[in-house]
Design goal:
Layout (H helix, E strand, L loop, with lengths): L1 E5 L2 E3 L5 E8 L8 E6 L6 E6 L16 E6 L4 E6 L8 E9 L2 E4 L3 E5 L2
Parallel strand pairs: 2-10
Antiparallel strand pairs: 1-3, 3-7, 4-5, 4-8, 6-7, 8-9, 8-10
């Protein structure tokens, strides 16, 4: 099982980024996928998740209305579109899945929001 995030970088407040998490090694279309983030010096926190069909997409209150999670089951990829970014969104962003064989995380991608 592999999860590889990309798309992070430095962006000004109010800007946008789109993160991707390419997966392999499991039946992606059947599994719920999640994005978490870990701000500097803080604990990792939930951002959003999406079920296999893309129907159910709960979000953390702090990102509701600004972030959108989506998936492409043909490409085994989950996305996080982040708009109107603020300095408090600065964090390492991780994707996660929970399988019968265990819990899997990617290595993360750093998002820095600063002017």
């Amino acid at each position: 099982v592999q999860l590889v995030e990309s798309g992070g970088g430095l962006v000004q407040p109010g800007g946008s980024l789109r993160l991707s998490c390419v997966t392999s090694g499991f039946a992606f279309r059947n599994e719920l996928m999640s994005w978490f983030r870990q701000p500097p010096g803080k604990k990792r926190e939930f951002v959003a998740s999406i079920d296999g069909s893309g129907t159910n997409t709960p979000y953390a209150t702090s990102v509701l209305g600004r972030f959108t999670i989506s998936r492409d089951n043909a490409k085994n990829t989950v996305f996080l579109q982040m708009n109107n970014l603020a300095p408090e969104d600065t964090a390492v962003y991780y994707c996660k899945c929970i399988l019968d064989s265990g819990t899997y995380w990617g290595k993360g991608t750093l998002v820095t929001v600063s002017s």
